[in-house]
Amino acid sequence: MNILLLGSGGREHAFAWKIVQSDDCSHLYVAPGNAGTASIATNVPLGITDFEGIHDFILEKSIDLVVVGPEEPLVKGLVDYLHNQPKTAQTPIVGPSQLGATLEGSKDFSKRFMQRNHVPTAAYETFTADQLEAGLAYLETQKLPIVLKADGLAAGKGVLICLTLEEAKASLKEMLEDQKFGEASSKVVIEEFLTGIELSVFVATDGKSYKILPEAKDYKRIGEGDTGLNTGGMGAISPVVFADEAFMKKVEEKVVKPTIDGLAKEKIAYKGFLFIGLMNTDGEPYVIEYNVRMGDPETEAVLPRIESDFVTLLKGIATGTLDSYQLQISPNYATTVVMVSGGYPGSYQKGYTITLPESVSGAEIFHAGTALNENGELVNQGGRVLAITGMGENIDEALSNAFATVKGISWDQSYFRKDIGTDILKLMKK
């Protein structure tokens, strides 16, 4: 198969790494890709929202399968666009319809979907700018802390946890009146704060059947001990010790099944990945959010644990034949440490030369914000630059392999969290 993968982050490098291992892949194109994907596939200078350009490229290269990595083209309707064009109407695509992608594109839409389909989630209300006074009054009736979420896409930064009523009121005004997150906060969801341990559950679905992929835990904040600003993700671990068999059975029965059934019942076309952000609250699962693609950096910890053919999985999703796929998961651990540019998630300098180790043992280096400069040198090009995934029979071995590899990588002002996995280790010793 000729396969086109859209995206340029660590998630897409991990996808590419897994795809090219399959005998079913004849040629992999990545648009636009990064320096890591360039070493194993053909990068294509196409924007992920250049729908016309993507359409023409599919025809030019006789693409047999399109895999959409990030959420933006899905929310903007890429799948609908391609399936409404006569020459790409039958092209298999891994990614939901625009309506399906609204599960991530609108927090209010996804919360209403959960309510209709009896999926456990936190209590909430939604407010717009002309309902600001009602929103402020609603805050006065709620317990603290309270969560404020921008309704639309905000690059993972549109969620605020407010500890005081004053902070909550000021933040609501900033979001609705001052458009703190732009158009994304034209609506704000005010949500009950859930306590517990957070994890990510990933589901592959062809709209009828589903496969639950390995779960993971990610680390969102920039500082050690989960302090400081939110980021796109500073690390991830899979499997998750607090997601035992009994808990995952509840997740399947109370969350996954009603979600997939709800999509079918409401005639929402969905052939793709569903990322379910969950809170384990005293052994009960509550959905924090849906995302309509794989997570990043969780993908870099999840895919190394999938032992069955990955392209067969992708083909099953896109062609409605997922029920016959036999998913095989390794019992081993995968731990991902993200290396970022100094200053991230704020401003940072680009163009520093990156030194990589000559050899790596027990780990994979996935590229995210990297590029090659005019001299062919590897340089940092984004905030999150590299994701290093260590593998091992236990979490200690996996972490050791990840951090040993991180120590062999350097560029000016690079930063990473040294405490990835320490919370899991503490839980395991209890």
UniProtKB/TrEMBL annotation:
SUPFAM superfamilies xrefs: Glutathione synthetase ATP-binding domain-like (SSF56059), PreATP-grasp domain (SSF52440), Rudiment single hybrid motif (SSF51246)
Keywords in alphabetical order: ATP-binding, Ligase, Nucleotide-binding, Purine biosynthesis
Keyword Iron-sulfur: no
ATP-grasp domain location: 111-319
PROSITE patterns: ATP_GRASP
UniProt EC number: 6.3.4.13
Reactions accelerated catalytically: 5-phospho-beta-D-ribosylamine + glycine + ATP = N(1)-(5-phospho-beta-D-ribosyl)glycinamide + ADP + phosphate + H(+)
Pathway involvement of the protein, from the record: Purine metabolism; IMP biosynthesis via de novo pathway; N(1)-(5-phospho-D-ribosyl)glycinamide from 5-phospho-alpha-D-ribose 1-diphosphate: step 2/2
Superkingdom of this protein's organism: Bacteria
GO terms for MF: phosphoribosylamine-glycine ligase activity
Record-linked InterPro entries: ATP-grasp (IPR011761), ATP_grasp_subdomain_1 (IPR013815), PreATP-grasp_dom_sf (IPR016185), PRibGlycinamid_synth_ATP-grasp (IPR020561), PRibGlycinamide_synth (IPR000115), PRibGlycinamide_synth_C-dom (IPR020560), PRibGlycinamide_synth_C_sf (IPR037123), PRibGlycinamide_synth_N (IPR020562)
EC category: ligase
Entry's family note: Belongs to the GARS family.
Protein name: Phosphoribosylamine--glycine ligase
Taxonomic source organism: Algoriphagus halophytocola
Source species taxonomy: Bacteria, Pseudomonadati, Bacteroidota, Cytophagia, Cytophagales
